[in-house]
Every structure is written in C-alpha cells, then in structure tokens.
Specification:
Chain lengths: 466, 479
C-alpha cells in the first residue's frame, strides 16, 4: 500500500486550495485525486464571470479562477492524479481509487480532506407527475453540454427553479439561440443573486413566475410541454391556475446536495440540516484525521469562500498528519459581505437598479434633476454612483460565451471589459462566425475591439496540448 | 421462412424464445419497441410470488408455483441476481386476519412451502420497522425478488446466443394465414413468414389475437404507479410487505429490490390508453398514504424516481395460454404473477405449440447458460486490477453512483440483445439509476454510444423513436 501525508479527494476549488495549504504547512507528500481529466471541477463549465472578487480582488470567469489555482498546484510539488475516482474510504483513512493507468490502488493517508463538492437534485426528488420523455435535464448537465461539449440540449425551454445555475443557464441558452419561455419559482422569492436576476432574466425579457411550479410533464418521446400552476401558501398547486406551456425542454435548477457517499462509507457524521459532515473550526469531521471543505460540507454561495475553507482544511490536515496540535490553528473566520439575493431587492420604479460593482449590492436610484444633472441615491461609495449613471444612461455588460475551435473543442471567451448592452447580439454573431486554432492560452486576444466596442475578446482557458 | 415467430419481447416472449431456441428450427422474435422489456416487463414490482394468491386449480396457481421453484436455477443459468427475501401479508384488523387465514388455506392447497400465520410481534421480529398497528401476518419464506428487465434481457440474450433472431421496431400491423404458414406485416412495410406464431404481445395481445381471427378476450391497461427510494433507505424492509388483497389486486406493497433499493407501490387504476404510463399526483398520494400504514416512518425524502407500469389485465380471470387457430398460440392476459410464472409459462407455451403441430429436432449444442455480465462494483480489488490490466476501460468510471465502468457500458452495447440507447444501457448496467439519476454520467454514456455506433451525438436517443437528447452543435463542426 502507498502512503501519503495528506490525500485530498476532489480537484475542484476546495481541493486545490486544500492541497496548496497542506504543502505550505509542511506536509511532505500531498496527493490530490480528481476524477476528471483536468483540475478545476465544476468551475470549468461555469464560463460566466463573477468569481474571485474576494480572493483575487477582480472579477474572473470560472475557468480563469480554476487556472490560477491549477498553476499554483502544478508549481507546488503536489502529486496530482487526474482521471482517478475514489471508490472507497474507511475510518482508518485508507483511500481506494481506480484509474486507467494505475488500476485499483489503495493509499494510506496521514490525513484525508474531503472535497467532493455537490450534485444536483434530479427530477425524481421532486415527484413531478407526467410522462418520462427525453428533454428533462438538470441545469448543470445542460451547462456541461453547452459550454464544454458544445451541444444544444434544447430549443424551447422552461426552467424550474430560480437558483443561480438556472438563471445563468437562462442567459446562456438565450445567447446561444434558444427561447427560454419562463423561469418558474415555487417560493415567493428567487434564491438567486439579484445581480443574476437583472443580468440573466431582465436583460433578455425572460419572465420570472414566482409562486409557480410545474405540475405535469407532457410528451412521449421528447418533452412537448409542461403544465405550470400557481401554488398556495402550503406550496400546493391552486386549481384553475394551470397553464400549458409548449416546450421541448424542462430544465431543473432545484437545489444542490453535498456529495457525501464517501463520507458515509468512512462513517463520518452527517448533519441533517446541511447534508454535509459535521465539522469543527479546523474543518475536522467527527473522525480524527478526516477533514472536509467546500460544497461537500454545505453549498456555498461564492467560490472564494470555498477556497478559503479549503485553505483551513488543508492546513489542519497537514498539522494532523505531522502530529501537531490542531487547536493552535484556530483562527477567526473572516466576515464576509453577503451579496443580495432575490427579486425583493429589485426596485420596481424606473431608474432604479442594483449595483453589481461589489458584493454589497446597493439599491440605487437615479433621478433627473431640473438642471439636467443626474442624482444618485442609495450608493455607499463613489463607484456606485458612476455605475448608476452608466446603468441609467448606457448600460454595459461583460459578455461571456464559447467559441468553437477547428477540432470541435469549445473555448470559453469573454470581453475584457464591459460592452454596451445593445451590442451583445452583434458580438455574439461575430463570435459564432469565427473558428479558432489551437493551441491557445488564457488571456490571448482573439478579436480586438469586438463589434466596434472598446473591449477585446479574450480566451479564458488555456488549451496548450491540443 | 421461419419456423416460429414470437410477437413481443417481454419476459414471456424472451423466456419462450429461450425454450424454443433449443430446437433446431429458425426462430425470430418481433418487438415493436427499440429494445426488449419495454412494456410491463420494464415497470413492475419484481416480485417472485410464493403462490398463495391465485385460485386453486387455475393456470395462475400452477404456473406461479412451478415458476417460483424454477426461478433459482433459471436465474443462476442466466447470471441474473435473485434473492428469496420472503414476503409478509400484514393484517390491521380482525377482518384482515380472517382474510389471512383464507390466503393461508389457499396457499396450502396450491402447495406453497413454509407458509406461516404469525402474530404482529413475530412480524416485527422479521421486519422491525413494521408499524405497531400490524396485528398479524402471513409469512411466506419462498417469495423472492428479481429484476424483471434483467431477467428478460438475459433470457433473450441466451436465446440469441443459441441462434434466435430479434427484430426491434417491428410493430405488427397484420397477420395473414396462408397454406401452412403466416405472413406477418409491420407498420413500416417489412414482412416475415413463419409456420408458427406465438402471441406474447402483452398489452396488445388481444389486438394481435384478433389479427389471427381470435376475438375471444379483451385486455385493459391497468396502471400501477411506484416510487423508488435510494439504497440508503434500504433499512426500511428486506422482505416484501403486502396488505391484504382487494378486487383490484394485491394492492400497494413495499419491498427491497434485488439491487437494494426500496420500491413502494403500485397503485391500481384502469387507463383508457395502452400507452398512458403517466405518473399522477393522485397516484403518488395513494402510495404515500398506503405505505404509512405499514411503517411509522417512511423516508420519502429518499425518493429518487417515480414511474408507472401498465399491466395487461385480461377479462378471463386467468392467464390465457391456448391455440385458438392452428399454428397460432396465445400467451395473453399474463399479469401478476406473470413474472414469477414466466419460466413455467414458457414450458406451457411450448406444450401448446407442440399440440398444434410444431415439430423440430433438438439442437446438439444448445446451451441454457450464459456467462454472467461483469459487475465491476461486486469484485475484489485483486479482481478489479486483473480486469483493468486486461482492459483499460475498466479503469474508467462512468457512473459514480452505481460504480459502472466504461467497459461495462461497452459490454451492454456489444452483448446480445444489444443496447441501442441511453435507457437500454441504463437497464443493462444500472448507469444512471443511482441517486443522481444520470446527471453526471448521461453525457458520457451518450458519447460512448455515439462513438461505438458511429453516430453523431445528436442522433443518440433516450429510448428510441423521437427521444433525442441533443439538438445539434451550439456552433462549430463536430468534435
């Protein structure tokens, strides 16, 4: 049996951060196990921006955030096993994993960090009546098809659930030519960030039906439509409010569940509320030497917090493996500003908007004064004022999308600065018409001053070995 | 010209094909769907009944008992998992207890082994989660569980190993009697000729019989709705729990499937349309209500999917296995305990066929056994490594919930009867049947199917027909 001081299960943001801090803290041999062929986890399909404001002080896309960490991991003398899936873990910290190259091997770990992330709740968990056709898909799976594989999973789409992935996918599908007919949310407010409601739904005129759910799925082979109905205070459908919406796809964004199959195999105590392991300030589970961080513990709102938790877990794991006292590692967790969620923050009056410059998300109101000057209310900094005036007079958005390479690889791209909102569709046309040549590196400029704007279209993920 | 054509590749058709493949005579199985086991053999309770339920002397009673006794060896020969988990019919009242006594007596007449009438306490000793309101039970240790589509797939595969042919997407539109043979036509214009025809068409068996001139029975589609729970809920029960039966059948049950999930259901309601396998609000509510009678705490939060199956309910009160016209054999109205009866029904069908003139020499090299499919998750580390050394595809995990490797997906696509779509792979390997319901593995399975069958990804379907998953490239050429 092989030995490793710290074994980290999962090479997403939590795992990469834990691996780095375990090395920093002095662990000799750190092994990072990832089932995919590349590191980054779910970040690789999250091609939109909004990551890294806390961690790096700038707004990055998912692949960019992942690549920054991957670079650090590759430089840090960490053993990285990609294409490897952990199939078993026991309380004595014996990790069993399977891969094509190494076969089925066991590693005895000085300490283990669980960083497996989470998975999506499927249709089955919702008990939606109806038929069982093709075309019912979770938003994350759809995101993988579109952004990574380059295939459209639907044309006429209804989305159930207004969590962030659902909102983000409403925009992605629209930008790639699909028609998103409605987003239904059973609760009276969206669980998504207000920023996403503005930029993913409002910008494209996609209706958000609050207090609505899907009561039946129709179609034998492929989805032919869904029945949507209003719900009462007990979340039960109200008779007489049913509406049939023809569509070929029902996309589900109805929650994420920490992925704890391995944790349970090891006998780690799971919290019934978070559905993740019960952990202490050192991120240690109830089994000494087994630590947990990121979405495997509970679903986090921002990847930045996941990385931070990974950092703590990795350091604690290294200390445990080296026989050092964990208690001294305790540190006050940083207080985070919570970004505003839901539509309730969304001002109804014209000229009002929500600031997306930073996570504070101030509600801004712009009014025209008699002297022709614009007056901004509600901002708590100067950047907010500038943003409000911009949003009022000439709104701008950072455009993120994908571009096809000659071999069919989907290369994520973005504009390196926001472009006028009305330029989005013109820029999408330009993006769709061009085919890229590989290799390509993160940051490479693909199109200068795209569509006559001030922004360059740049690549957000490196494809070097292609 | 074929010697025999079997219409319908459900468990009865497949088991019959397996029997008839022992003869040195051309055999073909015609199936209207894209795969085998697509009708009631796909969605039922998977129970191997002990045999106390059917009327003594009925065909149901005889075949149930015989089929139950044959199941062990049949499954062993086919490499299908089978487990005798026992069943409990539970009583909540004195009235129910009287019914239990009737079932007990009937079971003894039918020849069921080991039946016992037990108290509520004894029942809770067998299944500790049974509610306090259970006042007594009929315990049948000979009841078991089997996966109905697994049994169908392997039986058909075994028939094919022995030379039988399978023609899918062949929806029979007419049967014409000629001098000493039949011409069977499909809706798409294909036609085949066969001396003997066996009607195993399940929900459509009355329509097929009518095409051959027999209008003596009618089939009603009777829906049963189910909820399937995660293996994590497996503690709930091991044995199959029934309530006392009523006019519509054995009622809602709870069982641990042979794969370790908890299955709750079925409801029982007639439907107008033979394709109407919708799950309804009302049906699921009934399942929830009824299950709460068995157990105080049912972990409904562990539901991973729900589905409905349609039973081919005949109007004769018994299985219809006969030859209404020379050379034509019916195997119709085979609802519960049809799955249990299948191995015995196949022998009965063979006898009727011989009665109507079927004669052929036996094959010399007929093999009733087939190698068990490799299930990576069931192996030791040593065995796993030996496999990966031989074939790297065993080192690539495709479905994380059920631990299914790429090699097993390929095996499902290459082994008879070959899977052609996502659901076909799912039924053969269990990839996508776990708690994430394919969210993780489906894109990968789709890619493997496309590659293996030399198709574009957008041509791969969920379950044949127009059930495509993708609408072409977002942009740019093919990968």
């Amino acid at each position: 049996m092989r030995y490793s001081d710290v074994v980290i299960i999962g090479g997403g943001p939590a795992g990469m951060s834990a691996a780095l801090s375990a090395r920093e803290a002095g662990a000799d041999k750190v092994t990072l196990i990832e089932r995919d062929d590349s590191l980054g986890g779910i970040l690789q399909q999250c091609i939109h921006n909004g990551f890294g404001l806390h961690r790096f002080g700038e707004e990055l896309t998912g692949p960019e955030y992942a690549e920054r960490y991957e670079k650090m991991v590759r430089e840090a003398d960490i053993e990285v096993m990609t294409g490897t899936i952990v199939t078993d873990l026991d309380s004595r910290r014996i990790v069993t994993c399977v891969s094509e190259d190494r076969g089925c091997i066991q590693i005895k770990a000085g300490a283990v960090v669980l960083a497996m992330g989470c998975r999506e709740r499927p249709r089955g968990a919702l008990n939606i009546p109806g038929t069982r056709p093709a075309g019912v898909i979770t938003a994350g799976t759809a995101q993988k098809f579109v952004n990574v594989e380059g295939y459209m999973p639907g044309r006429e789409v209804v989305i159930l659930g207004s969590g962030d992935i659902g909102l983000i996918m409403a925009r992605r599908m629209t930008l790639e030519g699909a028609h998103v007919k409605a987003v239904c949310e059973i609760m009276e407010d969206s669980g998504g960030l207000t920023r996403n409601i503005v930029q993913c739904l409002k910008d494209f005129g996609i209706p958000l039906k609050l207090r609505h759910t899907v009561t039946e799925i129709h179609g034998r082979d492929r989805v032919e439509g869904v029945t949507v109905a209003q719900v009462d205070e007990n979340l039960k459908p109200v008779k007489g409010t049913e509406e049939f919406i023809p569509c070929d796809t029902l996309m589900l964004s109805v929650g994420l569940i920490p992925e704890n199959e391995l944790s349970k195999k090891a006998g780690v105590e799971i919290s019934p509320t978070t559905k993740g392991p019960v952990i202490d300030a050192n991120r240690q589970t109830k089994i000494p030497g087994i630590f947990a961080c990121g979405n495997v513990v509970k679903v986090h709102e921002l990847v930045d917090f996941v990385s931070e938790e990974g950092h703590t877990a990795g350091r604690s794991a290294a200390c445990f493996a080296m026989g050092m006292n964990l208690a001294v590692q305790e540190k006050q967790a940083k207080k985070h500003v919570k970004e505003k969620k839901g539509v309730q923050n969304l001002p109804a009056e014209t000229g009002a908007t929500i600031c997306t410059i930073c996570p504070v998300g101030c509600t801004l109101k712009v009014t025209g004064e008699a002297d022709g000057q614009l007056k901004v209310e509600g901002n708590s900094c100067r950047r907010g004022r500038a943003y409000a005036i911009k949003e009022f007079t000439s709104p701008e958005r950072t455009l993120t999308s994908i571009m096809a390479a000659g071999d069919g690889t989907m290369v994520p791209v973005k504009t390196d600065k926001p472009i006028p909102k009305e330029k989005i569709s013109e820029c999408m046309k330009i993006i769709n018409e061009k085919t890229l040549m590989l290799p390509i590196s993160l940051g490479n400029i693909i199109i200068e001053k795209i569509g006559g704007t001030e922004a360059n279209l740049i690549c957000t993920r490196s494809f070097i070995n292609k | 010209m074929y010697k025999t054509a079997i219409i319908g590749a459900g468990v009865i058709g497949a088991m019959t094909a397996r029997r008839l493949a022992a003869y040195d005579a051309e055999l073909i199985v015609l199936e209207k769907e894209a795969d085998v086991a697509m009708g009631q053999s796909k969605a039922n309770s998977g129970i191997v009944h002990a045999g106390f339920d059917p009327e003594p002397g009925s065909l149901k009673a005889k075949l149930n008992l015989k089929g139950n006794r044959m199941m062990e060896e049949t499954c062993h020969q086919l490499g299908v998992n089978f487990r005798r988990n026992g069943s409990l019919v539970v009583a909540f009242s004195e009235e129910d207890k009287k019914t239990l006594k009737k079932l007990y007596d009937r079971g003894n007449i039918n020849g069921v082994d080991g039946l016992r009438l037990i108290s509520g306490e004894e029942a809770r000793e067998i299944e500790k989660n049974l509610s306090e309101s259970v006042k007594g039970a009929l315990y049948a240790p000979s009841a078991g569980v089997v996966c109905p589509y697994d049994l169908t797939i392997e039986a058909m595969g075994n028939a094919m190993d022995n030379g039988a042919q399978l023609m899918t997407n062949f929806e029979v539109s007419s049967i014409k009697k000629k001098e000493g043979y039949y011409i069977i036509k499909a809706t798409d214009g294909r036609e085949i000729e066969a001396e003997y025809v066996v009607n195993c068409a399940g929900l459509y068996s009355d329509k097929i019989a009518a095409m051959a001139g027999d209008t003596s029975f009618h089939i009603t589609p009777r829906a049963g709705e189910y909820m399937l729970l995660d293996k994590e809920a497996g503690y709930l029960t091991d044995a199959t729990i029934f309530k006392v039966p009523d006019a519509m059948g054995k009622g809602v049950l709870a069982t641990k499937t042979v794969d370790g999930n908890i299955l709750l259901g079925p409801t029982s309601a007639d439907r107008e349309n033979r394709e109407d396998d919708r799950v309804t609000h009302c049906g699921l509510d009934i399942v929830r209500e009824k299950e709460k009678m068995f157990f105080d705490n049912v972990p409904f939060d562990k539901v991973i999917t729900q589905f409905a199956g349609l039973r081919a309910h005949g109007d004769k009160g018994d299985f219809i296995i006969n030859s209404p016209v020379p050379g034509f054999v019916n195997a119709a109205g085979i609802e519960s305990p049809g799955l249990t009866s299948a191995p015995a029904a196949a022998i009965k069908i063979e006898e009727i066929l011989i009665g109507t003139g079927f004669r052929a020499p036996m094959k010399k090299n007929y093999n009733p056994c087939r190698e068990k499919v490799v299930r990576f998750r069931e192996l030791s580390i040593h065995e796993k490594n030996a496999l990966i050394r031989k074939n790297k595809d065993y080192g690539q995990m495709v479905c994380r919930c059920e631990e299914i490797t790429k090699a097993e997906i390929l095996q499902a696509l290459r082994r008879n009867p070959k899977a052609t779509d996502i659901d076909g792979v799912k039924r053969r390997t269990r990839s996508g049947m776990g708690r994430c319901q394919g969210g993780f593995c489906m894109p990968h399975v789709l890619e493997i199917i496309a590659e293996e069958q030399n198709k574009k990804p957008e041509e791969v379907t969920k379950k044949g027909g127009g059930s495509k998953i993708l609408y072409g490239r977002v942009k740019g050429g093919a990968r």
